[in-house]
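Progress narrative, Year 2. Work on site-specific DNA-methyltransferase (adenine-specific) from Deinococcus irradiatisoli advanced from sequence curation to structure prediction during this period.
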Amino acid sequence: MAIKKSELYSSLWRSCDELRGGMDASQYKDYVLVMLFMKYVSDRYAGQPDALIEVPEGGSFQDMVALRGDKEIGDKLNKIIAKLAEANDLVGVITLADFNDPDKLGKGKEMVDRLSNLVGIFDNPALNFSKNNAEGDDLLGDAYEYLMRHFATESGKSKGQFYTPAEVSRIMARVIGIDQARSAAQTIFDPTCGSGALLLKAAAQAPGGVTIYGQEMDNATAALARMNMILHDNATAEIRQGNTLSAPEWTEQGKLKTFDYVVANPPFSTKSWSNGIDVDSDLYGRFTYGTPPTKNGDYAFLLHILASMKSTGTGAVILPHGVLFRGNAEAVIRRNLIERRYIKGIIGLPANLFYGTGIPACIIVLDKKEADTRQGIFMIDASRGFAKDGNKNRLRHQDFHRIVDVFTRQLEVPYYSRMVPISEILDDRNDGNLNIPRYIESGDQEQLQDIEAHLRGGLPNADIDRFQAYWEVLPGLRTTLFADGDRPGYSTLKVPLDQLKAIILKHPEFKAYSNRVLGTLSAWVAEHTPMMEAFTQGGHPKELVHVLSEDLLARFQDTPLLSGYDLYQHFMTFWDATMQDDAYLVAGSGWQAGAQPRLIVDDGDNKSKETPDFKAGNKKYVADLIPPALMIARFFADEQAKLDALETASEAVALEIEELEVEHSAEGGLLEEARADSGKFTAAASKRYATDRLRALTFEQDSDEEKEVLQRYLLLLDKAAKAGKAVKDADAALRAKVFQRYAALNEEEARQIVVQDKWLATVQRDVTAEMNRVTATLTSGVRELAEQYAQPLPELMEAMETLEKRVAAHLEKMGFSWA
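Result:
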């Protein structure tokens, strides 16, 4: 039975993190990623002649597995890694992490246990890379991405710069046009490549392949980048170590080597960038457009990137917003670049997106090949599109898609994007300032109050016009809701506020609009249901999600009042949380086998945190593909209805007991002492008290009322116990039937439940939710407008005068004079 991908990766991270010991994540990642590397190359290349990586005898992951529990495991692991490194010119790449370091890994048994457990984490049958990337399944890439993101998150602000968020990397790849690359002879370069994440994401977008070059100053990070290139099937990528600015490794005949594509996420505002450089006579001619300030290297990196681009090259660099508007030397450079037409576009990103800094940044897109004809710079303000993710912000699927769509199509969207003429940028008012808010309004408009409406009543037509998007689609609805007022420019609301939503929903135009939306959804369902039902073992999940999500976006892109990007995000959120795991389960095991409940395995001290759906003896099971609720809805609706009735009856008895306890539990009440030691009512304590108290009252006179209450209380407690048992027994019987029914599921039943009741039902709920949002937005907007101007000033003054008279009359009765 295949394990869910999300559970595989999360358990991988939890296990690794628990073994970290005294190291921080920036150090521990070296051990984990070397182990991942050894596992990958062993699975992929061991025993294969002429493989890209030679796995020598005594240098494989299986040799590591044999060392679990060995007293000399640390030293022997180093020797196994060294054998693989020596056979593949990887000394200094995979040999930097010392697996025999007692300061980091502990001494004696502690080291043995820690390393044995670390090896055991990767010795997982579900973590098999032998067919990685075959048929589009990049198990290694997904696992690597998951780990790197968590390492960057845990490493903290000062040590997380080795990783560029995947969403930003993909944006950069698309805006430089690398998806048009058709030959491996084309090249991509990252002068500050870190662990290589940005390079890898960009290169992956090139359908024809591309040759990778990179340079990284930190030795350990450069080694990590080389290792990652191999992990991602780019063993021929060339990564060199050194300071890009003072000692560039990629040169030809004394000049910088140039590339078709360049991407970079350099360290922000480096103060020591000029060390080792004669800026006045730079050997590589990088500062012909101006010399960056001594204490800030942002433009030094940008100019190095520009000099590394071919005359037909494109590039993208992440820099802080300050490069767009800072003055003095940077203003000179910026103006020269604008005049040369090298800047194609600027994309403003949300703050707190990157792991090395919390400040907002931007992507500057450079393009030499169209410089002669460029008349403007395309700007996007994407600063408001993100989701919170722990202590960081993260671009959502819809944010990435929207940025790429708008930039590649050069679409002008109000408050979001604009093609800004270079003449406007260089005029006297702007003088080369590229700060995005100068050219794109935020769209945050202050809500103005209409003084005349407050004085004389009526609803300002200007305020009603704020809902113009609705009136364009539903013109008759406006006349249904509003009538002309007693003077030009003002209207009145014709319908009661408490009926507003119902009137909108029943309006013929709204019904027609709703049918149009549902018709669009029905067409998408009809088009893609066969594809979903045809998906089976060996299928390609990433192809499935691409086709479904892109067509959903396309079909709803021009639907008024709804956002196609919002619906796309709903779908992708469902994919990330649920549907992706479903698709990989089916692709790995088929519909029937994939639908079977999975045994939860507790490995030693690593207890699973999963909540079981079923328990059978000491065994726990979870139903990943088809949750019990879907099985019950399909096959056991009658049993569920009976269970619901029993639960309702049980809740009714519980409510009677609660009412009796509230009535008689106050100080001096008949049930005051029925509480347990905790001060709360419990069935056992209450029953014990009531029984003992009744026994004590047997020979007492004048206790009929108390006896009646206690007898009723005992009767209710007994009734509640029986009702609770009935619920428990019925629930257990139902779950037993459901558990047995899984085994009897055939392929067609499993497919129908998942596709119809799970996948399509979720999409339909999401579209319905967006329709409800449309209704709610209009309803609440009209209600707020009506309430805002509900009472003009004369009415308020009259009401205040009436209240003043009432107060004065009350005071006069009390003997006070109201002055």
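The longest strand covers residues 309-320. Residues 670 and 705 are 9 Å apart (CA to CA).
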